[in-house]
Design goal:
single chain; alpha/beta; 2-enoyl-CoA Hydratase, Chain A, domain 1; globular; 3-stranded mixed beta sheet; 2 domains
Length: about 260
Amino acid sequence: MPDSVLIVQDKEIARLILNRPSFFNAFDFEMIDNVARTIIGLAADNSIRGIVISGEGKAFCAGGDLKWVSDFQAGTVAAFHKLAAAFHQTVLEIRRMNKPVIAAINGVAAGGGFSLALACDFRVMAESAVLQQAYTSKGLCIDGGGTFTLPRLVGLARALEIVAFDKPISSEKALSWGLVTRVVKDGSAVEEAMQMAHQLSGISLSSFGWSKQLLTDSFNNPFETHIEKERMALRSCADNADGKEGLKAFKEKRPAVFMVKN
């Protein structure tokens, strides 16, 4: 049986490939647990400075494997509880790591695949690919952080529209609504995402990580609490080797070189 998750490393960029193409990369527990453990490992690997997530075959990810859920011996409630635990660990690790994570949406991203794509920092979408939340039409609610990320990307009213009607979202509409970063020709999503990751590989991971965390947390903190977090983050950045290099480069009137381990 082939591995459900593959890793291909290109210099300092790791490409994580969801590898259940005959199931449109829908994940059972074994697969999503493998994804979670792989993401945790990549986050801790100092040789990796960016991650691209893509799907093998025609789909990005069709979400949770509902056949696996239906056949789970302990019942569907226990199945969703078990599946969501590993899925949510994956999403939390993506949102908290200081490295850029890019979704290369090469085909349909539905259900948990939709939430997984939204959890990434950037999304590159193929022209013919489709997004669909796909939960509510099955009598379920969105998970995987989708109810957190979706209204922050498109606003509450549009998020409710997406939830209520559950219509497929084309790449053109996804771009105009701010759901994706770029739309590219079919067959080019992975290549474009890898190029973007390599372009970002030279940034300060300390700066990016703190900025990512502060932007995410800004919706939940009172203003005074948040600006105090900014001050503490700024101090941390200034004390980091990247911050010292950035200030030194400014003084010396040259580009900064941020290739240190953070």
